[in-house]
Structure formats: structure tokens, C-alpha cells
């Protein structure tokens, strides 16, 4: 039962990643592309967690936490750059 749920989740997350890549390429302006990148790192975290569940190991959960922290910091930095033109005041 868990294998079926993991395969369905994997398919849905890969579909979401494909839609994010489309928005990243076609996006009309920079905030849309930034939002697509932000959503892509959230989906990659979900993929890493699914891999951790599938392989039954805890190492992948720690990697997902590290990617989440780095993704948040990078999103804040890029947003500050887009709004102000400078990251450090």
C-alpha cells in the first residue's frame, strides 16, 4: 500500500516540477520566474523526502532540511535584490 502511495506521489511531484520548468521558461516577468524557482526547490525537497521514505533511511531527511534552509535564504536574498537592487544595505 505504501509503495502505491509513493509512486502516485512521485508522479504528481514530477508533474509539478515539469509545470514549474514551463513557468520558469515562459514566465512573463522576473517575479513569476522567481516564484517558479521557489516552488521547484520545495518540490525537490518533497522528492528527497519521498526517496528517504522509499529507502527507509534518515539521511535524506537531514539533506531535505538543509536544502530547505538554503532555499529560504536564497529566496529572501533574490527578493531583496529584485526590490532594492542591493542585497546588503
UniProtKB/TrEMBL annotation:
Coiled coil: none annotated. It comes from the Bacteria. InterPro entries: MrpF/PhaF-like (IPR007208). The chain crosses the membrane at residues 6-22, 34-54, 60-83. Keywords: Antiport, Cell membrane, Ion transport, Membrane, Transmembrane, Transmembrane helix, Transport. The keyword Transmembrane applies. It is found in: Cell membrane. It is a multi-pass membrane protein. It holds the Pfam family MrpF_PhaF. Belongs to the CPA3 antiporters (TC 2.A.63) subunit F family. This is Monovalent cation/H+ antiporter subunit F. It comes from Litchfieldella qijiaojingensis.
